UniProtKB/TrEMBL annotation:
UniProt keyword terms in alphabetical order: Dioxygenase, Iron, Metal-binding, Oxidoreductase, Vitamin C
Name of this protein: 2OG-Fe(II) oxygenase
Cofactor: L-ascorbate
Organism: Sphingomonas humi
Pfam families, per the entry: 2OG-FeII_Oxy_3
Length: 214
């Protein structure tokens, strides 16, 4: 039973984000670029820690990078408005591809450091992440289950499964863009992908909109 209904961070969903041919080109490219993916490190720590995160990532987007940057910049005014993000617009973008296979997950975390001893973790020196956006795509028929993006209510980042903590789950649906403030605690729920074939993984494009914070 949920003891308290705590406020959730704002989350924006943009269905059918890319045009059909753009979505297909990205999927084809990622499948062909399997060798570029490496075990993911924890956000701005250079170590791989499978107790906290199991997934594959690459910052290499090939020839699709200019198109993807343009789409993400086009979406920015709507994402800022709908998440209630005030202040000057972000000054740079950080892009990364992720592939979650069988048994993959990313335990609860925030995409920027918060609290004592924090330092900026944005794309350029001094910049911080302001908004986090994730674009989901996969082959049809979909071969994985789970992998929901779980956003938690305000409060400390949960250490472990905390079923009492108010949360909202977003299904990583085909061609969906989701955005939320980078300070919001969230996780990727465990993925099941029988056969563990790379082309059937849960694919995503992570985008962080960055600027210096006052
Ligand atoms: O793939 C997702 O749904 C979120 C990924 C994430 O939280 C991250 O890479 O920081
Ligand atoms: Fe994250």
């Amino acid at each position: 039973m949920t003891a308290f209904e705590l406020p959730l961070p704002p989350v924006v969903r943009v269905p059918d984000f890319l045009a059909g041919h753009e979505h297909r080109a990205l999927l084809d490219w990622v499948i062909s670029a399997k060798e570029l993916f490496r075990p993911a490190t924890i956000t701005h720590e250079s170590k791989v820690d499978p107790t906290r995160r199991i997934s594959l990532t690459t910052a290499k987007l090939g020839g699709l990078e200019p198109m993807l940057r343009e789409r993400m910049l086009d979406a920015l005014p709507r994402l800022m408005a709908d998440t209630g993000t005030a202040g000057p617009p972000p000054t740079s973008l950080e892009l990364e591809l992720a592939a979650h296979g069988d048994g993959a997950y990313f335990r609860p975390h925030t995409d920027i450091q918060v609290g004592r001893g924090r330092h900026p973790v944005g794309a350029k020196p001094g910049e911080d992440r302001v908004l986090s956006a994730v674009y989901y795509f996969h082959v049809e028929p979909k071969a994985f289950s789970g992998g929901e993006l779980r956003l938690f209510s305000f409060g400390p980042t949960p250490e472990d499964d905390d079923n009492d903590r108010t949360h909202v789950d977003v299904e990583p649906a085909q061609n969906l863009l989701v955005a939320f403030p980078s300070w919001a605690p969230h996780e990727v729920r465990p993925v099941s992908c029988p056969g563990n074939r790379f082309e059937q993984f849960r694919f995503s494009l992570n985008c962080w909109y960055c600027r210096t914070l006052g």
